[in-house]
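Table 4 source record.
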Amino acid sequence: MESALEIVKKFYESAGILNKAYCQEIFHENVQLEWYSSKGYLFLEHADLLALSKDLKLSYFDLRAQVHDIMCDDDKVMIRYTYYVRTFENSEEEMVLATFFAVWEIKDGKFFKGIQMSQLSN
């Protein structure tokens, strides 16, 4: 079985959020994400995260995460990363979407509880 760190790293480095089937596989059925964004607070559960996956796939031609830091303590993983995107309208230009800091608890090999902060690119 993969370690919690390997599970989180694989998800972000593979742009797993764009793959609904992968999200269904990797998100625990009782997953919860508290997201403090530059636009406000969001509380997301399983269906919300799958909807986010679909929205991102429809909005961007490509999405790439650059992982800056990742640390693990048992089943909790902290990751700091930046998402870069290319739009359908301008697929040649990669732009910074936002920088994120997240702490995830992994349960049964799946994302279970998360807290995330993000700041949009200026």
